[in-house]
Design a protein that fits this description.
Number of helices: 5
Low-confidence stretches: 1-6
Order of helices and strands: HHHEEHEHEEE
Number of strands: 6
Number of domains: 2
Largest sheet: 4 strands, mixed
Distance between the termini: 44 Å
Shape: elongated
Oligomer: single chain
Radius of gyration: 22 Å
Helix content: 40-55%
């Protein structure tokens, strides 16, 4: 994981642990920038990780801190990574199943092409599902549209073909 906007405390803690492992001299300000959160949020997470024994802090210089991941922290990071992958795969399978059902409805209505309105990972999953189901991707107004809004996908079809 890199500098991404995360949603959950677990996601943030995973990124923090990965960044600390990469650079023990990382500052809270740079971690906040990478996570897209306030420095206070990073401080709160770091205090939690320290209190649980996952991270230790050593003073490197007068005003400089060094963060060190403990063996317990490495094991915790591994658990967070596995949970992240499992959650991502569940989302991936759920979106693929839903898009397959939407495309089946479009096919039943006589269509073999769609337009995708949306980007990102969910849009990519839609594209992959369309290709695998034999749908052509077009940028036309008179065909069904898969609308991607966050993690939601809906199908918009014209009333009459």
């Amino acid at each position: 994981m890199t500098a991404i906007q995360t949603q959950t405390d677990s996601d943030r803690e995973l990124v923090l642990l990965e960044q600390i492992e990469t650079n023990p001299d990382v500052t809270q300000a740079s971690l906040a920038g990478q996570l897209g959160v306030a420095v206070g949020t990073v401080n709160w997470h770091l205090k939690r990780l320290i209190s649980k024994g996952y991270v230790k802090v050593k003073r490197a210089q007068r005003r400089k801190l060094r963060y060190i991941i403990t063996p317990e922290g490495i094991a915790f990071r591994a658990r967070l990574t596995v949970n992240y992958i499992e959650t991502s795969m569940r989302l991936y399978r759920r979106i693929r199943q839903h898009v397959s059902e939407l495309l089946a409805a479009a096919r039943q209505a006589g269509y073999d092409q769609v337009r995708i309105d949306g980007d990102g990972d969910i849009g990519d999953i839609c594209r992959l599902t369309c290709i695998e189901m034999g749908f052509k991707l077009k940028d036309e107004d008179d065909i069904p549209v898969l609308e991607v809004r966050g993690a939601r996908v809906s199908l918009r079809m014209k009333e009459n073909k």
